[in-house]
Amino acid sequence: MANTFIKLASSVLLALSLSAQAADLTPVRTNSLRLPAYPLLTNDPYFSIWSPYNDLNQGMPTHWTNSEKSLLGVLRVDGKSYRFLGKDRQVLNPVAPLAAYGAYDAKYTMEKPADGWMNLSFNDAAWKDGKGAFGNDNFSNIGTRWVGDYTDMYVRRVFTLDEVPQGKLFLGYANDDDGEIYLNGVQVAKETEPNGQIRYVLLPEQAVKTLKKGQNILASHCHNITGDTFIDAGIYVEDPNAVEFPVLAKQKSATVTATSTYYTFTCGPVELQLVFTAPQLITDLDLLSTPVNYISYQVKSTDGKAHQVQFFLQTAPDMAINANGEQTQSWFNQQNGLSFLKAGTINQPVLGQRGDQICINWGYAYLVGEQHAAKQYALGDEIQIKNAFMNQGKLPASKTTVRTTRKDHQPIMAYVQDLGNVQAQPVQDFVMMGYDDDYSIEYMHIRYQGYWKHEGMFSITDAFQKFQLNYESIMDRCRALDALIYDDALQAGGKQYAEICASSYRQVMAAHKLFKDREGHLLWFSKENNSNGCVNTVDLTYPSAPLFLIYNPELQKGQMTSILEYSKTGRWTKPFAAHDLGTYPIANGQAYGGDMPVEESGNMLTLCAAICHLEKSTAYVEPYWDILTTWTDYLVEYGLDPENQLCTDDFAGHWAHNANLSIKAIMGIQGFAELCRMKGLTQQAEKYGKIAKDYAQKWEQMAREGDHYRLAFDRENTWSQKYNLVWDKLWNTQIFPSEVIQKEMKYYLGKQNKYGLPLDIRKDYTKSDWIMWTAAMAADKATFGKFAAPLHKYINETQTRVPISDWSDTKTGLWIGFRARSVIGGYWMQVLAHKGLLRMHE
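Above: the chain's sequence. Below: its structure in token form.
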């Protein structure tokens, strides 16, 4: 009854608030960085939409996996339309469609064929018969499974044309890993980046000319490097009635703060200010976890005259699908003063798929705004809706529901506001987008909803009402956080460092999902984006820790508690910490094939010590004391000179006797000594503290090599970043001789390349999170800046247009792999050091 009263009261307040709210739509701090991808709509690993372009209208926004997601914005000024957001969706009709529209016959082989295999005349009689698409079970629409340890698959698909289609022809394709595709012997695509998401590209004229009445051939080759496998290809022709908005608004600026992305455009005689805001306030768990974002806009005349202006925003059900061809259903309805456009798949396979580079295909995408005489909402045919807006500045009557089959064109969901006569005084408003995933995580075989739902007491409708009603205050709070994030970093490391942190915040936050388990534990699970899809990986929790240790340690504990519980409950029985809890979003137990005993135990012990120091209490670790003791004893036995076991830096291969891994073990032992000291266990504190101190002295002798220290104890003429030493500085424990950090930092300055400090001697690539840990060991801000500047330059100049990659080449500035990962929370290590929050000894 009380809940009903609250909802009724909210609806009354909402009605009174319509069109009454305004926010400051100028950035609270400036940011000169050109990001490789700009965050638009972000909340979690599935609701994560980016623009990988300098100009917002240069192409369609994408999920971080590179899967295109429909988002189109147009401003109509005095009858002329200016496209400011995205690109017109291709309305395509199938010629030889992808497997999403139905399985197709093809021939395939796993052995390298003779030359000319891509030509129609090639004799493929010895090849096997199969059905497309081809790949493993982690992809949709698989007709033939890729089995065995084969590294290559070759596919020949013959299709027949009654007539050569007229109009623009497109290739639709997807590949994982590398792929090359030919049409009648002419190469039409070659990809060296794995991407299981379908892309459409205009066929080159040379290939189009080969099409003929009768038989034609699409030939594909997929080369698998590791992990998942997939190849699919098809031919499409553009619908002759397709409507486009070819005139582009002129983008004047793009600025990113912690919570918002700001764009400014010239649309003929008016200026448009556009702001995407994700209110993921790190200290407000409800706002942080609620999957609703604002799109704010402001228009003013720049020529002293009044102009008739209409604002148009379009999205589509592809926001809620993983693979093209999935059947969807969309709805339009109005409730409590709001208009809702909603779309999702018909099948709704809740938590039905796990994996890395996939999009969500359960739950529902929303476009929501207030009911108002000047605002229209429409669900329906794309061509009809766009025609109406282009010609009249209005939308046609909306359909109530649209259900599609695999072969139907997807409908669109559109919003229009008639801003009337716009003059020099700005006219401002906003609309909302969001995603309700129903259930978010399966943890130890129990399904959980997101934290914001409070066990079903709060619905997505309630969330949108809350965000509508509190727009101005939420936007003000976002600006306050923007200023805090920027100013803390500016004070700690300078302007370039502040810009790095401001540009990274939403990437870190949106790589997690927040929920509570049945025991009441707050859990903040990461997804290991674009590395293997693991959930709550400890060697992501560790590098990302600085951001959470500074601003909300509860979120840091939210990543650690489940790992501790995993051992406490007996599900994990080994004498060291687990690596992960499964493959996102299924967290029922470790999925990774190899253990990282020293790595993960050292990580957990170090972070436990940091948490307890911040809280001035060991209460958090009391239930797990025996486990921590076991892990510490493991490090005592195996940590000083690690055998050939996995660690997080093994990109160039596993080396035994890893000096940086040894430091991690030593600091883990020291961390446990600090816990013992805080707990009042003086004897144990002295015991483990002495072991850590003795090990540190031995380490210095074992790793010493003149003016620096080795990568591995037994490898002469080697070096590596010793970023784990940063804890000795943060804690002021001084267990390592003071000259160790001094020597290493001086040596590193001579090893930097254009785009940063390499990870070690073996390759030119680096991990930027570790660069910032290393940089935080600098004796002064000026030295720190020498390490931060190349990272700033990398983010600003890299030609790899993905959310910030933490694994890149320090000479070319191109990524090696990894994107959209939480580990760049490590960029805040300098802020953590500057604040002195973890200083345990004076």
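The mean pLDDT is 94.
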